[in-house]
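Inputs:
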Amino acid sequence: MHLGMIGLGRMGGNMAERLRRGGHTVVGYERHPGKRDVDSLEELVERLEHPRVAWVMVPAGGPTRETIHRLGELLEPGDIVIDGGNSHYVEDQKHGAELAAKGIGFVDVGVSGGVWGLQNGYALMVGGADEYVAQLMPIFETLKPEGDYGFVHAGAAGAGHFVKMVHNGIEYGMMQAFGEGYELIAASDLVTNVPDTFRSWKEGTVIRSWLLDLMVRALDEDPELSEIRGFAQDSGEGRWTVQAAVDHAVPMPTISAALFARFASRQDDSPAMKVVAALRNQFGGHAVESAKGADSPGADVTPPQT
Amino acid sequence: MHLGMIGLGRMGGNMAERLRRGGHTVVGYERHPGKRDVDSLEELVERLEHPRVAWVMVPAGGPTRETIHRLGELLEPGDIVIDGGNSHYVEDQKHGAELAAKGIGFVDVGVSGGVWGLQNGYALMVGGADEYVAQLMPIFETLKPEGDYGFVHAGAAGAGHFVKMVHNGIEYGMMQAFGEGYELIAASDLVTNVPDTFRSWKEGTVIRSWLLDLMVRALDEDPELSEIRGFAQDSGEGRWTVQAAVDHAVPMPTISAALFARFASRQDDSPAMKVVAALRNQFGGHAVESAKGADSPGADVTPPQT
Amino acid sequence: MHLGMIGLGRMGGNMAERLRRGGHTVVGYERHPGKRDVDSLEELVERLEHPRVAWVMVPAGGPTRETIHRLGELLEPGDIVIDGGNSHYVEDQKHGAELAAKGIGFVDVGVSGGVWGLQNGYALMVGGADEYVAQLMPIFETLKPEGDYGFVHAGAAGAGHFVKMVHNGIEYGMMQAFGEGYELIAASDLVTNVPDTFRSWKEGTVIRSWLLDLMVRALDEDPELSEIRGFAQDSGEGRWTVQAAVDHAVPMPTISAALFARFASRQDDSPAMKVVAALRNQFGGHAVESAKGADSPGADVTPPQT
Amino acid sequence: MHLGMIGLGRMGGNMAERLRRGGHTVVGYERHPGKRDVDSLEELVERLEHPRVAWVMVPAGGPTRETIHRLGELLEPGDIVIDGGNSHYVEDQKHGAELAAKGIGFVDVGVSGGVWGLQNGYALMVGGADEYVAQLMPIFETLKPEGDYGFVHAGAAGAGHFVKMVHNGIEYGMMQAFGEGYELIAASDLVTNVPDTFRSWKEGTVIRSWLLDLMVRALDEDPELSEIRGFAQDSGEGRWTVQAAVDHAVPMPTISAALFARFASRQDDSPAMKVVAALRNQFGGHAVESAKGADSPGADVTPPQT
């Protein structure tokens, strides 16, 4: 097939490359000259065959919104816009409606695969109308991993990014569970062989998983994780998952706890814990430091009598 | 009444003082000379009238255990031992049984009141057999605050410390809720008058409480809590509350979250978050830093494509 | 002062009444005839003195949005619209901007006080520009409780509802902490006197509070809460607090846990726990039921070997 | 090697079978006649070669304690007792010390593998002194899965059960994360193809794992999990993990949330939520049901003014 790829960063560039290797014709555009095949969205649209297919692979939010809006002005009924970035599913629904009003198709694709995607394929989670998804299947077949998995048409417009968002939410919970388990093991004097413990779990256990494999690799490189700071960014998807859960009245204690742990990891000092400390000061007075309730040398482990 | 007070620290000493002011005869003992009236437990026991009453006010754990054991050797059937420290309720049950085997009564008292107790009275939560508690009522009447509240005979031996433990668990949850609310308000540009906001809540609101009063006091002294580090100790009771909940299959998400926030506040770096960061490094590769998925200047807010 | 009150439900009606008792002139309007003084917003606007003050007390969302928009069409520069409902603070910011473009003032007021407000006054949390808030002080003075508390001008437009929202979030955490503490006490055989335990806490303890007072009242009416179903609605504010925390990267484990507990309380069956049960079935096979790992009668309490 | 297997339930019986297929000589005993090779522990001990090896595979707690104590009486210095059940690591430390005082070795083994272990091997997590573990390696080699993984000597006595316990804690967190993700997807109208979504994740995603594979199997059998009740038991290990975290001051928000969700799933009604509902009744009065704050039909979604 022919398609335009807008955004040639690591993800967009590699996906264009995988598509070309698969026999597709890709016209690439990005803002900066260099790798791009055309110098403007207008030119890209002119170069595409009918019905035109434009894959948008730019940052979520403003850049995606503006690109899709501009494509809506340039394209014609029957053409299709794909949003393969990290958009929020509610944005997809707006974009889908905006384009549908002009007869232009919209398909959203949540993409997983990172730096290995070029070689191994990308897991694709797709939302959109059946007719458009069917039309795009040759592209998806090339991008996805070989084998039976790694592709789903999850539902209408927005569904692709929705399930990708939830995938990432689950990922947050799993990573945090590994983190908590590691911390408890590391805190115990009892376990003298931490990396081998995790390595042993790669077979015959309930928790065997790709994340466990990555963890073993990380411990092989740095057995006490001494080179790594306990500081974790969060991406939009984790936040969106929790907010979507709140919107849908879905209890989400584990994934939210994982998100909050990331927030806390980035704080130099916690305002909430300042309050807790201040309150302890208030009701304990200097007693917090000196009240013993007893004359014993062991008194320093005794909590204040509150 | 006559009673012996063992442990003359801030709590024990003040309680002895309040009892004396109330007309009771108190024989005080502690390990270090100075404030003590007698030089040994043996002498204390000799000085008491029958049936003897010995109030133990030493640190929980070893010191309490040893003191009660020694009293069991010195006292006679009909005498009563009171544990007014911070013992775990399971310890109370053991001590009660150990003393009961010798015909000696045992009563546990959870005490709240801190530095204001001498003047305002101590809230008392009492566990033990009806007959012993009835015998001790004159003491409890003097120690408790005036008015209708501040005293409960909650149940058998251990019940006093059990409900005091739960009181403290609830306190953890409440303090953390105030902390989280404060942090959100402080994080918002919208609210320019934080101390007055909390002050205004002292009347007409659902959350009016002594802890809110303390918080207003803390903000009066230090409106941005800039002098206070977000570092909060935890006492045994918070941990015991969560562990008792687990033992009783009681869901306790809020109080446990408050406890875990205290643990985290004391960590320089979080081993769990090292794992999360290490895993992000593993699947993102250098991509975590540089992968944009797009050519836009906004790319730095884009999560890695995972 | 003169003012229009739009929405004469329990809150709006009682507030109008308290204002009249305080000497203000109130023109009331609501959709349904009966209690209303005028038959339309147009008539209400005509009846007010310059500069006009219109207090909107209708449901958040659509009704508030439409009412404010219509007032924007009817009012003139220098007039003031107050939103005293439960609007989201982001809506306030939009409304403030929309009205400011026409020279009309906007003030948002978070109101606490429920059914006792008519008699005891309402706690008011106010957002808006200084000039408008100053103009409205006579109204606020009448509505608020007597004494030094119960009123705050928290910041610009939106700040009033923002701090009211956080107030409710804190309330969620406190209520849940009491609930968890109660449940643990009720689960223990040790405590035979639950209502008296809570009653005793009304004095001399750290957790004394209005919520504790209410809890004692509830236990007086129904000592085992046997007439009450463990089913708790949530209001918008709890959800918004958690979502605002996520937006501001504020860790909020306790308040979110309280919110999720409410969500869960309303479920007949939990889809998440279906998954957990299904997974246990998958890895345990029928073994979940029958695998003992041993020949002992105690085997039924043994977890499957996973 | 020769060894005695005490406890011939599904786990012990299958392990004995796998050992025999691997060329070892196993003397089996259990309380009930039928499958057992000897009629008493005494006879079992007599039948074993020196140094004797006795693998205990009976329920944790009393049965294990009694069996190990009895073996301590029957065995001789140089013999080895293995606890392959689900004992708490603190029990292991006591058993190890008790046997060490008699010169008898003790090794604890956390075993994973369930019903597939006979065929695929069991993941083994081992604690104990080097000399004893070294002696037992032929047994472990036969029991473990083929390949490089599935066995670790994690540390001294207790370390085997400790890391197995943590493994199960991580498992709780992972399962709950999948559950929460599933629930959110199921709650959304957007996703019309839930089973295929999970199936697609088996390749190219971050969350690919054995648990995901099991989940796909469960959804294949019952696409809406309509035959499964959201009711999840918990095993000792989940509780112990949380309690060990509290003992070690390790924050464990995710795994504890997963544990509490299981507790809650088994409640007909939640006492904690009764309190929340009762408090809402108290401050809202009948207002909870009827207070609208407005005259609008949308009022039923408006929270009470609290």
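Confidence is low (pLDDT under 50) at residues 286-306 of chain A. Flag for discussion at group meeting.
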